[in-house]
Specification:
By secondary structure, the protein is α+β, with helices and mostly antiparallel strands. It has 17 helices and eleven strands. The protein folds into two domains: 24-229, Cytochrome Bc1 Complex, Chain A, domain 1 (2-Layer Sandwich), CATH 3.30.830; 252-436, Metalloenzyme, LuxS/M16 peptidase-like (Cytochrome Bc1 Complex, Chain A, domain 1, 2-Layer Sandwich), CATH 3.30.830.10.
Length: 441
């Protein structure tokens, strides 16, 4: 009887969690095309104000790569009404914090403030869009900042060029082929007029989504949004070229020398469909089966049992147009990259030919339920998810329903998707090795 009561209590608690996870939101458009999403959560006196622009490194001129990431920095320089160097001072002086990030597909800016500074946050983001100051001093300053970031995060970071090298070898036509941080030579060669033109084209209200989430008064927030964002002129429609890649039909082999490493890494990468597809979500599950945690198939076999690798991992690198399924490993001393690839391939073949057990399948479902709860556990996470589902997926309500897609995936689909995408003739094999002079020392 006691166990029954405990079980009933657990079910009630889980039901409460599932109910609490439903994210309520309101959305509408301003006349200038800005899409607005509001989410009220009065559990804490905090508000997140964020703007996502549909511009990433894939929107750049191949001769001017790095512009999207550069603007992530440049648009903190100042505006007509916020003096140069004052942006971060205003934020911290009012108890807030802020940041921004760029991907191949979009650029995202956000502020987190105490709720009594909601109007300030809305005004600041409108200033970034309406009155940015883009001049030579700002460009030169941020050029040095970006160069330093590249030195720290890429050039001098062990395995820092891994994703960039995978992309470079796997995309021929699509702009995903270059690194998000871009080329410093391209940035050096760019003129001020080119930066102004990029801003004029992409930083327009009809290419953006504004999210205000947290402890807000809906009517008052709408009034502030209209006051500050409403007067911003609509931009010209953005016509995006569609780039398609031919299927990979035979193994691509490549080598990259990294002066920052002492241990070689082997990478197997497969081109996969858009993150909006059901197959991309199945590949997320396959990643968990193969390498999520020390009890996962690859880790347990290759690292723990056979001790062939120091490290092994697999992940689905999902993007708006295409994705990459990447498996990587560092061989243990005395073992080769070929051995590691052979062992990883055996696990994939097993997945392609045998259904995973019901027990493993239930564990997998539990992992994705946990991720779902975690992704919406903070107002910051909810704000970014709302913006992402609107801008990149075209369906905001996926914040509530995407978990149902994962719940509906079957063991048979896991087998079939592994068969469809994870084959030796459809991949890149990259030997990511120490630079020769490094290896000789």
């Amino acid at each position: 009887m006691k166990k029954s009561l405990m079980a009933l209590g657990s079910l009630l608690m889980l039901g409460g969690v599932a109910s609490a996870q439903k994210v309520a939101f309101e959305e509408y458009n301003l006349d200038n095309g800005l899409h607005v999403i509001l989410h009220q959560d009065k559990s804490a006196p905090v508000v997140v104000t964020s703007v996502m622009y549909h511009v990433g490194s894939k929107d750049e001129n191949p001769e001017r790569t790095g512009f999207a990431h550069f603007f992530e920095h440049l648009l903190f320089e100042g505006t007509k009404n916020i003096q140069r160097g004052e942006w971060f001072k205003i934020v911290t002086a009012n108890g807030g914090n802020n940041n921004a990030n760029t991907s191949d597909d979009r650029t995202y800016y956000y502020e987190v403030f105490p709720s009594n500074n909601t109007e300030l946050a809305i005004w600041m983001e409108s200033e970034r869009l309406m009155h940015p100051v883009i001049n030579k001093i700002g460009v030169d300053t941020q050029n040095e900042v970006v160069k330093e970031e590249k030195r720290l995060r890429v050039d001098n970071q062990p395995y820092g060029n891994l994703i960039a090298e995978v992309k470079r070898n796997m995309f021929v036509n699509h702009p995903y082929r270059w690194a998000t941080i871009g080329s410093m030579e391209h940035l050096d060669a760019a003129t001020l007029d080119e930066f102004l033109a990029f801003n004029h084209k992409f930083y327009v209200p009809n290419n953006a989504v504004l999210v205000v989430a947290g402890d807000i008064d809906i009517a008052q927030t709408k009034a502030w949004i209209q006051k500050y964002f409403g007067p911003i002129p609509k931009g010209a429609p953005i016509n995006r070229q569609k780039f398609e890649e031919k299927p990979i039909t035979q193994t691509i082999k490549a080598t990259y020398e990294d002066p920052n490493i002492q241990l070689p890494m082997v990478v197997a990468s497969y081109r996969t469909p858009s993150m909006k597809t059901r197959d991309a979500r199945v590949l997320d599950m396959i990643s968990s089966i193969l390498s999520d945690g020390k009890s996962s198939r690859m880790y347990k076999k290759i690292v723990d049992d056979k001790k062939i690798a120091l490290q092994i991992g697999a992940f689905n690198y999902s993007q708006e147009d295409y994705g990459l399924y990447i498996i990587y490993g560092i061989p243990m001393q005395g073992h080769t990259a070929q051995e590691l690839v052979k062992e990883a391939d055996e696990e994939i073949v097993k997945l392609q030919n045998e259904l995973i057990s019901e027990k493993e399948f239930q564990k997998l479902k539990n992992q994705f339920e946990s991720r779902y709860v975690s992704s919406n556990s903070s107002v910051e996470g909810i704000a970014e998810n709302l913006a992402t589902y609107y801008m990149l997926y075209g369906d905001i309500n996926l914040i509530n329903t995407e978990i149902d897609i994962y719940r509906s995936i079957t063991r048979e689909e896991i087998r079939d998707v592994a068969r469809k995408y994870l084959n030796p003739n459809q991949r890149l094999l990259l030997d990511y090795v120490p630079a020769k002079d490094k290896a000789q020392n």
